[in-house]
């Protein structure tokens, strides 16, 4: 029987699927709740949250929910439901805020996706369980969790630069920053127990936070 912690992850997955399906079929619904710079700056702040439950297609939805399925339960099991939800929604909002900052001069920039929230959960799980190994798709050898996390972030940077699809790539970075920071605030002992990992993951985040705007000029 599924325990309460697993149910929290499952409820988020179901919510993402149902809201995304509504958006697939109803463009006016998608347009009303997606992330859009001009609308948010005009006062529709709710979009910073609702856009995180919409996706452009099944592949986009599937990738994010697969990552949430893999990593969400680790965070929930170790920290409990309340902290898991705090990291999830905190990362979602930090992803939206970073996107707003990065695209502030593009009033019609829009995006959707749970990427910010999922990135935060990915980074939280790596900090909490650095020994994890993953078997992904058709790769026959295990991949250390921190390599997956860094690869996820690099894909986000590439997507930001190339503006791939109607996907919130900049939210990946903002969400990773949020998840990283919130997890450390909730568990400051990680600075001692996983000091090398904290530094290793923190350096690229800090560099990207400081110099991320220069990606537009590359």
UniProtKB/TrEMBL annotation:
SUPFAM superfamilies: Rhomboid-like. One of its GO terms (molecular function) is serine-type endopeptidase activity. Residues 43-186 form the Peptidase S54 rhomboid domain. Pfam families: Rhomboid. GO terms for biological process: proteolysis. Its main location: membrane. It is found in: Membrane. Keywords: Hydrolase, Membrane, Protease, Transmembrane, Transmembrane helix. The chain crosses the membrane at residues 66-88, 108-129, 135-158, 170-190, 196-212. It is a multi-pass membrane protein. One of its GO terms (cellular component) is membrane. Belongs to the peptidase S54 family. PANTHER family: PRESENILIN-ASSOCIATED RHOMBOID-LIKE PROTEIN, MITOCHONDRIAL (PTHR43731:SF14), RHOMBOID PROTEASE (PTHR43731). This is Rhomboid family intramembrane serine protease. It comes from Polaribacter atrinae. The lineage of its organism: Bacteria, Pseudomonadati, Bacteroidota, Flavobacteriia, Flavobacteriales.
């Amino acid at each position: 029987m599924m325990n309460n912690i697993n149910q929290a992850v499952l409820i988020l997955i179901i919510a993402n699927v149902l809201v995304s399906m509504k958006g697939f079929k109803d463009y006016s619904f998608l347009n009303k709740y997606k992330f859009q710079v001009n609308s948010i700056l005009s006062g529709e702040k709710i979009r910073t949250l609702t856009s995180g439950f919409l996706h452009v297609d099944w592949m986009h939805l599937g990738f994010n929910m697969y990552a949430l399925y893999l990593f969400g339960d680790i965070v929930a099991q170790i920290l409990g439901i309340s902290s898991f939800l705090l990291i999830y929604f905190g990362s979602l909002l930090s992803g939206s805020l970073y996107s707003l900052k990065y695209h502030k001069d593009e009033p019609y920039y829009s995006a959707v996706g749970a990427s910010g929230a999922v990135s935060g959960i990915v980074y939280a799980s790596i900090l909490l369980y650095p020994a994890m190994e993953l078997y992904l798709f058709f790769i026959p050898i295990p991949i250390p969790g921190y390599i997956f996390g860094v690869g996820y972030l690099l894909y986000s940077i590439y997507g930001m630069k190339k503006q791939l699809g109607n996907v919130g790539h900049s939210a990946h970075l903002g969400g990773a920053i949020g998840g990283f920071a919130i997890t450390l605030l909730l568990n400051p002992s990680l600075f001692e127990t996983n000091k090398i990992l904290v530094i290793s993951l923190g350096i690229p985040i800090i560099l990207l936070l400081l110099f991320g705007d220069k990606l537009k000029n590359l």
